Amino acid sequence: MTKPRFRELRRSYGFDEVAIVPGDVTINPEQTNTEFEIEKLTFSIPIVAAAMDGVTDVNTAVLMSKLGGFSVLHLEGVQTRYDNPQEILDEIAKAPTAEVTALMQKVYSAPIKDNLVGERIQAIKKAGGICAVSAMPANTKKLASLSVEAGADIFVIQATVTTARHVSRSYRGLIFSELREAVEIPIIVGNCVSYGACLEIMRTGISGVLVGVGPGAACTTREVLGVGVPQVTATMDCAAARDAYLKESGRYVPIITDGGFRRGGDICKGIVAGADAVMIGSVFAQAKESPGRGNHWGMANPHAALPRGTRVKVGTTAPLKQILFGPTSVTDGSQNLVGALKTAMGVCGAATIKDMHKAELVVAPSITTEGKFWQIARST
Amino acid sequence: MTKPRFRELRRSYGFDEVAIVPGDVTINPEQTNTEFEIEKLTFSIPIVAAAMDGVTDVNTAVLMSKLGGFSVLHLEGVQTRYDNPQEILDEIAKAPTAEVTALMQKVYSAPIKDNLVGERIQAIKKAGGICAVSAMPANTKKLASLSVEAGADIFVIQATVTTARHVSRSYRGLIFSELREAVEIPIIVGNCVSYGACLEIMRTGISGVLVGVGPGAACTTREVLGVGVPQVTATMDCAAARDAYLKESGRYVPIITDGGFRRGGDICKGIVAGADAVMIGSVFAQAKESPGRGNHWGMANPHAALPRGTRVKVGTTAPLKQILFGPTSVTDGSQNLVGALKTAMGVCGAATIKDMHKAELVVAPSITTEGKFWQIARST
Amino acid sequence: MTKPRFRELRRSYGFDEVAIVPGDVTINPEQTNTEFEIEKLTFSIPIVAAAMDGVTDVNTAVLMSKLGGFSVLHLEGVQTRYDNPQEILDEIAKAPTAEVTALMQKVYSAPIKDNLVGERIQAIKKAGGICAVSAMPANTKKLASLSVEAGADIFVIQATVTTARHVSRSYRGLIFSELREAVEIPIIVGNCVSYGACLEIMRTGISGVLVGVGPGAACTTREVLGVGVPQVTATMDCAAARDAYLKESGRYVPIITDGGFRRGGDICKGIVAGADAVMIGSVFAQAKESPGRGNHWGMANPHAALPRGTRVKVGTTAPLKQILFGPTSVTDGSQNLVGALKTAMGVCGAATIKDMHKAELVVAPSITTEGKFWQIARST
Amino acid sequence: MTKPRFRELRRSYGFDEVAIVPGDVTINPEQTNTEFEIEKLTFSIPIVAAAMDGVTDVNTAVLMSKLGGFSVLHLEGVQTRYDNPQEILDEIAKAPTAEVTALMQKVYSAPIKDNLVGERIQAIKKAGGICAVSAMPANTKKLASLSVEAGADIFVIQATVTTARHVSRSYRGLIFSELREAVEIPIIVGNCVSYGACLEIMRTGISGVLVGVGPGAACTTREVLGVGVPQVTATMDCAAARDAYLKESGRYVPIITDGGFRRGGDICKGIVAGADAVMIGSVFAQAKESPGRGNHWGMANPHAALPRGTRVKVGTTAPLKQILFGPTSVTDGSQNLVGALKTAMGVCGAATIKDMHKAELVVAPSITTEGKFWQIARST
After folding, report:
1. Cβ neighbours of B357 (radius 10 Å)
2. What is the C-alpha to C-alpha distance for residues D265 and A121, in angstroms, rounded to an integer?
3. Which of A271, B35, C78, D146 is most buried per CB count within 10 Å?
4. How far is C376 from chain D (nearest CA, A)?
5. Are D257 and D234 in contact (CB under 8 A)?
């Protein structure tokens, strides 16, 4: 009997398994620069609020702009299906756990109203905010043209998994390169997790890529579909695609890593893994200003036949400004995210986000295990 | 002192440690084809209900056929030992945990009645179902001939571990190739977990192989005997044997991976690992129609001297049809298994089960660890 | 700066991380032979009861002999320090957890009585048992001669870590080769965990080696000293030493793996890892006949200044005979240990213990993790 | 599409994942020598009490000296900010968990009083103790000169991460080589975790290096910043730097490994990993004499904007002398640390600390996992 060639599986890594190694040079955190660019738009912090209904509405979008980052308003969420979305959001917040998914399936089956799409965008622009909006691929053509008309600054096409080559009999696949021609504002596409998919998406000419499938706090894709790549590996692979694409085209397409960021340390690791910016959901759902009232859920949760996610009660902790910039007396890493990033850049000797890409990560035993001994003591 | 050559151990993987990587192409889930063939029989879904008394009786066997898969009726279980098996099943369901194994040892020591073998098979056939039945190797000769006579469609020979070469002084070993000659219906043999054992079984001419030792929810083989190979590795190795056998013989012998499938995601991973179909126990024990009344146990549980397994209270959740096809409001992956498979095939760009064999798996930190942070929140 | 050569650490394995792969041939368990030899003594089962005061006294030593294995009576325990040891054992059994170590330190500071050494040995011999006794290296010369005189069959020299080359200023080191000359009965020496230490011990001419430092249920050596090698790796390395020594000398010195065996599956794994026999503590402490009354502790526990271990309440479950041979209705692997071994040998196609050494082990995710999902259900 | 070169991550190890392999020779623990030197100062035990306000004050510094090691008094803690520090320490001890970080932020914003710096140092010297003091880099110039003047024996410069090349616009970076010239007493610098950073620090001429970022019991740097290297790997890498520096310069600069030591076994592992001495925080916070009254926190906890750590209630267990030298009836490794070290050196056949550097470590499943089965039993 000839010896078989066994199939080898590659090891992948999530946040809890890696740690950042300090550099041989350190710099003063105040001298670090956290700027992040999408085409001609420059943001002072590399942080994006997720297109989730518990996180982003007109109000928080304006606030995030003023704080230096931006929010993405989901055009297929409650904001565009209901004239008074807060009523619906309150209903979701109050629903018992056992009934909430069924409620959300009903809530999200109401039609999207074209007029609300325009109104929400204009409200953000009128208040002086950068307006980024998102849609699923199937509705992109229509919603993108409505958005541009209303004055949106960035258009995001987002599904659980998006590729440059989608096969469908029911509708003619969305061709990103055609869309790129038609739409004048920056286009961000996601999510993807692999080198190949990311590279192909970049080659269509779009402006940015969202990275991450599965690891978010409100996401159960990995349980339901078995699909997902841990976020550190996904980010490293897509960063490799970005660097390869830069080499072949001369164009630098930023990647925004999206999913599962819960602490300042996670954000720092996402950047070291190669991300240009980080998309945040659950931590921002904890902000005082957030529409979810301390609740958090993803846009795949309300799927009519195969919901993938849950409403997570994350609680309300602090104003968005304090979550981003502190000061704080909280020691679990959930506040002063930008302060944490600048401090980590300091100990890595990284003056810019691109410098931070060169820092070293090691695989380390998970924090939880390491800290077990004193866990009880800590919670006393 | 000369340096010793230390014995190296190969790493093996179970479901919780791997994740499926999305493809560079995606396709619409509705365009995926999940067909599965055993010789001339074609099934529209690659799902088989296990030969377990809490899962399969005449009624569920007929139902599974209508839904596109098939069930295996165990010819050495309560269905053929008792005229009124439901009475016995109810007794098992009601027994206190501390007494249930002893009760089962007694229940399963009653003799198998030849007439019931025929009656159960004919009942399934009369109702229009595909009838698959199983027996242990020692009773195969007798039960196989009774089954063929009664009209069974598929005969399954199943023990914890089955090989093509069994050494016994007490009875002449079952020779699969001889049985193959004698029995005209497709024969499935299992369970095995290694390349060599699988390849040897295929060479006897049988029609399909069951893969898996140890990981089932109701199985404690690994605790009791120390024997078992995690299901992803077992499936990959036996798939390699199938491919090698196809190359040497031109004949494609499907493998059915069996053991420990608890969520849609597990099924998707089993297929990506190389399985042609998946045998399901505990999740089907949760079906409203299941004979176990929300209880689940394996056929090795009632062993008279060395029981290996336990009765697991899995509860009753939904009709079998909903477990298979949804729609659902449950988000833990235990319902809409076929929808999950088709969606995962979509994100992997796999039009058929054989395409899905080419998708990539990565080793990933277990879901449980990854989700720890929000576990409490989720359960609120 | 030149790149440093980082120190590499070898990975080692314990029971929970490995699983036995079934063979390509299977044999009927009844045809397996579990015999084990130490010089001219042959035992029908490869199982040894540990030299622990909660496990072995005159009564259980006689019983183990009759059941086919043997027990080791510790000559530095309560049996030789007290005329009425059961009184003391009862006191230990009843002591509150917080006070038990201090109590044991006191109990074990009483002097060893020479006359009791002889009496215990003679009592075992009179009842027809094989009599194996043990001592620490420092007391070996005196106790070995008393033992031989009283009729002991096997002498065991046991300390946490024993080597052939011990450096001491306070007493002239025990020279095993000299002892070998002086003592006519088989000598077993332990414990060791590495290839080199095991090989050197074998070269002194002794009759058997005990393998294992740290992993026992009642042992905290790894916490207190940081010292220990997981049992599967320790056994594999010492088995390699045995095989190397056989090659160089033509003499086969059996190794007895000792520490942390809690289930039938662990014993099977220990044998596959290369052990000729298995020493068992905690599982035998559960026997109805055991002197510890359902309590278990090691001989390093009562150390006057640095106790390493704890009294573990293991409870009382079944007669020793049932623990060894069943039948049982317990499904966690703690009973019918020999039945489990013979069944595992069957699925590995191993007719003898030496055949079983050739079976394959794979590294597998720990049972605990794998079974998490149903844990709650199982305990209902 | 060309195959990308995926970025590889190096595996790193913490205490719970490694174990010490006994040697092929053993020696009597009483014959081991645990001496440790910093320039001309020799200590009989390689143990240093941390510069933490719950651990070190004048009283414990004197006591540690008498016991053979030394303590480091933090010159930026409560001892130099308050005339009556015990009042403040009691307030911290009594504060509710939810308020303690905010309280500490306030407490540590009081100014450092120059006169107290001198008084504390003189008090230690007057009582006959070795006086080691520490400061952060920004305050080093001033505090070092005050310290030398007052008679300190060792000066420690300590921050979360310290490098030989710090970039700052706000103050002229501290040049260690200049400081070395100016200050006549031994200088210890830390913390660092990598080969490169450690080697560069040694090249500035300083006398010792502190190793460790992140793993301490009272430290949440890894959660907040994502930064940290598990202690075993950090120690091995810095030991490699020490050995490389010895080769290039002929000067042996000891490394003191600092962070996360909770048991005797951890200390033994730290030494085997290559440390010349071990800095201890939480375990000493448990001493009866400790100023924290059973509470423990790090010097990064009270950071005004981004606190990294928590007050941990560790309780009060025994006098410092008993924690160091026993005897004890505690079996979890938290007492008789020196006894444990000498015993471990004995089983490794190591007569000196430098011999102990040559012992072998293996990667082993974590103690917690291994011991799970009996955990409940043990706690009964």
Report:
1. 18
2. 61
3. A271
4. 16
5. yes
Q: How distant is the Cα of A119 from the closest Cα of chain B, in angstroms?
A: 32
Residue C339 DSSP SS3: helix
Q: Kindly state the helix (H) or strand (E) to which residue D280 belongs, with its residue range.
A: strand D277-280
Subunits in contact with chain D (3 or more CB pairs closer than 8 Å): A, C
> Looking at beta carbons, which residues of chain D come within 8 Å of A348?
227
Of D333, D331, D336, D344, the closest CA to residue D319 belongs to D336
Average confidence score pLDDT of chain A: 91
In a mutagenesis test of the D interface, which of C220, C225, C235, C312 is the best target, namely the one with the most D β-carbons within 10 Å? Answer: C225
> Torsion-angle region of residue C293: left (phi > 0), alpha (psi -120 to 50) or beta?
left
CB contact under 8 A, B365 and A14: yes
- Which alpha helices (H) appear in chain A, and where do they start and end? 58-67, 78-81, 85-94, 97-107, 114-126, 140-150, 176-182, 195-203, 221-225, 231-249, 264-272, 282-285, 320-325, 337-347, 353-356, 367-379
Inspect the interface and report whether the beta carbons of A225 and B20 lie closer than 8 Å: yes
| pTM of the predicted structure, to 2 decimals | 0.94
Burial of A355 (C-beta count, 10 Å sphere; 0-12/13-18/19+)? middle
Q: Name which of C56, C50, C53 is nearest C91 in CA terms.
A: C53
**Gyration radius of chain A over CA positions:** 20
Backbone φ, ψ for residue C213 (5° rounding): -135, 115
**Strand extents, DSSP E, C53-124:** 70-74
Mean pLDDT to the nearest integer, A221-243: 94
ipTM: 0.93
Q: How far is C314 from chain B (nearest CA, A)?
A: 18
DSSP 8-state class, residue B29: G
In 3D, which of B56, B101, B93, B99 has the Cα closest to residue B76?
Answer: B56
Catalytic entry in D192, D219, D268, D348: D219
Cis peptide before B191 (omega within 30 of 0): yes
What residues of chain D lie within 8 A of the CB of C161, using their CB? 22, 26, 347
- CA-based R_g, chain D, Å: 20
Question: Cβ A223–B332 below 8 Å, yes or no?
Answer: yes
Which residue of chain A comes nearest to D12, CA vs CA?
A364
Instruction: Considering only CA atoms, give the Rg of chain C.
Output: 20
- Residues B272-286 have a mean pLDDT of 96
Q: Is the pLDDT of residue B371 over 80?
A: no
User: D238 an active-site residue?
Assistant: no
- A96-129 tens-digit pLDDT: 998 999 999 999 999 999 999 999 999 999 999 9
Structural domains of chain B, with CATH: 36-317 (3.20.20.70)
Which single residue is written with the structure tokens 């430290």?
A: D219
Mean pLDDT of chain C: 91
Residues 6+ apart with CB under 8 A from D271: D46, D278, D341, D353, D356, D357
Count Cβ neighbours within 10 Å for each residue of C205-242 and write b for 16 or more, e otherwise. Answer: bbbbbbbbbbbbbbbbbbbbbbbbbbbbbbbbbbbbbb
Looking at the complex, report in whole angstroms how far the Cα of residue B88 sits from the nearest Cα belonging to chain A.
34
Place of tokens 């909280």: A330
Q: Do B9 and C363 lie within an 8 Å CB cutoff?
A: yes
Q: What is the DSSP string of C142-192?
A: HHHHHHHHHT-SEEEEE-SS--SEEE-SSSPPP-HHHHHHH--S-EEEEEE
Chain-centroid distance of CA D259 in Å reads: 6
Determine the Cα angle at B150 with ends B148 and B152, to 5°: 55
Residue of C nearest to D325 (CA): C305
Residue-by-residue DSSP string for A72-87: EEETTSHHHH-SSHHH
Largest CA distance in chain A: 74
CB atoms within 10 A of CB B184: 9
